[in-house]
Amino acid sequence: MAALKTLFLFAITAATALPSPMVLDRKESQPLSSSNAPWDAGATTQFPIHPSCNVTQRRQIEQGLNETVELAAHAKAHILRWGNESDIYQKYFGNRPSLEPIGAFDLIAKGNRDVLFRCDNPDGNCQLEDPFVQGLTEAGYAGHWRGENGTDETVICELSYHTRRSLTTMCALGYNIAESETNVFWASDLMHRLYHMPAFGQHWVDHYADDYEEVVDMAKSNKTYSTHDSEALQYFALETYAYDIAVPGVGCPGPQHDSNHAEVSGSSSAGASPTSTTTQSASAASDIPEVSSL
């Protein structure tokens, strides 16, 4: 009996000596709020448009932004498929890694859209009277980033509604990549405007080249900033869309030039990338999309 009593007391003592289970702090064990809100609660999934835009202006801006997302999403998809090996990629970015342009396009395609498009010309920069009287070339700005007056705001001026086109007209009405401006289409024009705003350009995408020739020359010299140059990103997105979507396998690149800006004849694939596709294996040359000279 004494032995049983001793054993019982030992069991009680051992039980009380065991360490108590560690209780995690509530904040550590439950990172979400008590309301169990989804991780992306509060995200801005649609581009905000200021009340100063009337119904027709709003409709055009919304459609333009939808096409901007489409343009960026396809540019990203092209890189994900071909990496930095396609002639179009090498034409605009040289042999630079593909990580940076993928991110730049994905921000527009899927990023948080906490910016504002407005139509009320608060800074007086539109300077538009009647474009049909003065002529479109004298009508003032088509739009502008507000800068210090509103870092996340862009103004779309009246001129845009008279001059911008839909991507449905890609490679039509005399348009080609080399000889046309990047702001012909709503999609590429708004892409440029988005990169001006810190939410998308992140003070990293900037203007290092001013036109098509400078963009192509920059890629040929394999400059490190080609993959975050605003013009290069727009030209790449436009050409991949033209070649892959608008006129598949052909596109509308326009006249191709060598590094001295002299027009070259024959297939543009030689002028579109630092190395000729003939140096690749047969399978690589046949699989990777080349830039047509048509």
From TrEMBL:
A Pfam family of this chain:
HRXXH
A single GO molecular function term of this UniProt record:
integrin binding
Q: Which InterPro entries match?
A: HRXXH, MetalloPept_cat_dom_sf, PRA1-like
Q: Where is the Putative peptidase domain?
A: 8-254
Residue span of region Disordered: 254-294
What are the protein's UniProt keywords? Glycoprotein, Signal
The source's domain of life comes to Eukaryota
Q: Which CDD domains match?
A: M35_Asp_f2_like
Coiled-coil-forming residues are none
**Cellular component per GO?**
cell surface; extracellular region; fungal-type cell wall
Q: What is the residue range of the signal peptide feature? A: 1-17
Annotated Low complexity bias: 265-286
Cytoplasm as a keyword of this entry, yes or no, is no
Q: Which family does it belong to?
A: Belongs to the ZPS1 family.
Q: Which PANTHER family match?
A: PROTEIN ZPS1
Q: What is this protein called?
A: Metallopeptidase activity
What lineage is on file? Eukaryota, Fungi, Dikarya, Ascomycota, Pezizomycotina
